[in-house]
């Protein structure tokens, strides 16, 4: 698409968002205004699940999910070693122990072989494995066919951390954020569906979990908000953010197509120069929402320096795995070799729906 068309498309969406924001601000219903409930219905319909419960951010969403599933002290929860800190942090925040699992070298997602090894090891040690948190890292779904089987075999709950994955889907149109007993996402501005601040959501088909989550996000409320039947959080999505997200959701499929076009172009230009993310079409079983376009290269620091010199931002997601985080040093878990290697070689390039061909070519030419 030409720059002028991209620009026009973005300006049109921005004008709609300005209007929606002004409307929400003038309504005075800043907390739990009508836009919040409307958005929840729209998000549930988009993902294809029964319930969506919005909340303040993706970290709270994970914590709320674990609370609703009754996970706490004495329980162990398996998380990928290569992810954003919040995935493992949420486990520790509810008093459970995160167990770090290695990831697949191509998809960056949790490796089901290592997962099975670690589940059995946990069982042999007499620990209490309760759940797996799979992450849709950089936008591509984890291997849910396999993960759902593993969870069934070992009697574990499955939580999907779809903070980066909203909009991705598996081959038969099963969308990210529909795979867990409870799935979560984040609306942090840099995420595939981003708002103008912090925001998050949970998705489930289970009526009891949904009711529990609606209570937990408002201080554990009972039938009214001053009848508190349990301890919870204060974790609601602002009406203003809901208003922005309603507009963005209307344009979301166009943006998704646009980021896939950017990824295709990067893949073509970078083939043979660095290890490009596996092209989902070639793999034949999923589509990414491209929260990040992440290459692997032994000389990534050199590449990053070259981009920086040309004024082009790039980021290392993530330079330190979970098992190497200071906050988890007391757990004394062995590092995971593939996650370790990725932390030394990955580099995320500029990626958004409004990148022009010229911008993509400039980045590629510097690699
Ligand atoms: C994989 C993953 N999980 C959880 C989160 C937490 O989301 P939030 O920043 O909205 O709390 C993030 C945010 O970067 C993330 O990337």
Structure characterization notes:
Helix 4 (85-93) links the parallel strand 2 and strand 3 (97-101). Helix 2 packs parallel to helix 8 (239-250), helix 3 (58-68) runs parallel beside helix 4 (85-93) and helix 3 (58-68) packs across helix 7 (207-216). Helices cover 43% and strands 14% of the residues. The protein starts with a helix and ends with a helix. It folds into 2 domains: 3-101 and 109-250, Type I PLP-dependent aspartate aminotransferase-like (Major domain) (Aspartate Aminotransferase, domain 2, 3-Layer(aba) Sandwich), CATH 3.40.640; 253-365, Aspartate Aminotransferase, domain 1 (Alpha-Beta Complex), CATH 3.90.1150.10. The strands form 3 sheets. The protein has a 7-stranded mixed beta sheet, with helices on both faces. The protein has a two-stranded antiparallel sheet with strand order 6-9. Strands 10-11 form a two-stranded antiparallel sheet. With 367 residues, it is α/β, with parallel strands linked by helices. It is globular. The mean pLDDT is 95. The longest helix is centred in the N-terminal third of the chain and has 25 residues, at 3-27. It has helices spanning 3-27, 34-47, 58-68, 85-93, 112-124, 144-154, 207-216, 239-250, 252-270, 280-283, 300-309, 337-345, 357-365; strands spanning 51-55, 75-80, 97-101, 128-135, 157-161, 169-170, 182-186, 200-204, 286-287, 293-296, 346-349.
């Amino acid at each position: 698409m030409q720059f002028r068309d991209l620009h026009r498309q973005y300006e049109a969406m921005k004008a709609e968002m300005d209007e929606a924001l002004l409307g929400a601000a003038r309504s005075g219903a800043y907390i739990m205004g009508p836009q919040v409930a409307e958005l929840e219905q729209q998000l549930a319909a988009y993902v294809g699940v029964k319930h969506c419960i919005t909340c303040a951010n993706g970290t709270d969403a994970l914590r709320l999910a674990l609370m609703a599933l009754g996970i706490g002290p004495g329980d162990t929860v398996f998380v990928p070693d290569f992810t954003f800190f919040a995935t493992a942090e949420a486990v520790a925040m509810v008093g459970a122990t995160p167990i770090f699992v290695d990831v697949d070298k191509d998809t960056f997602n949790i490796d089901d072989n290592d997962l099975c090894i670690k589940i059995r090891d946990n069982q042999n040690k007499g620990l209490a494995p309760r759940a797996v948190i799979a992450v849709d890292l950089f936008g591509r779904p984890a291997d849910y066919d396999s993960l759902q089987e593993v969870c069934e075999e070992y009697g574990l709950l499955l939580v999907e951390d779809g903070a980066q994955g909203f909009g991705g889907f598996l081959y038969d149109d099963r969308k990210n954020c529909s795979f867990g007993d409870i799935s979560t996402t984040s609306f942090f501005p840099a995420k595939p569906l981003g708002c103008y601040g912090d925001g998050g959501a949970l998705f489930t088909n289970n009526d009891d979990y949904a009711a529990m989550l609606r209570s937990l996000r408002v201080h554990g409320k009972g039938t009214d908000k001053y009848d508190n039947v349990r301890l919870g959080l204060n974790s609601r999505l602002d009406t203003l953010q809901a208003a922005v997200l309603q507009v963005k959701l209307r344009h979301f499929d166009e943006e998704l197509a646009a980021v896939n076009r950017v990824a295709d172009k990067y893949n073509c230009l970078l083939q043979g120069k660095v290890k490009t993310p596996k092209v989902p079409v070639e793999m034949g079983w999923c589509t990414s929402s491209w929260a990040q376009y992440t290459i692997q290269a032994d000389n990534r620091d050199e590449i990053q320096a070259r981009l920086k010199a040309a004024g082009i931002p790039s980021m290392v997601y993530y330079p330190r795995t979970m098992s190497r985080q200071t906050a988890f040093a007391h757990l004394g878990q062995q590092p995971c070799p593939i996650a370790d290697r990725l932390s030394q070689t990955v580099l995320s390039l500029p990626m958004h729906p409004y990148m022009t061909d010229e911008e993509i070519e400039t980045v590629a030419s510097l690699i």
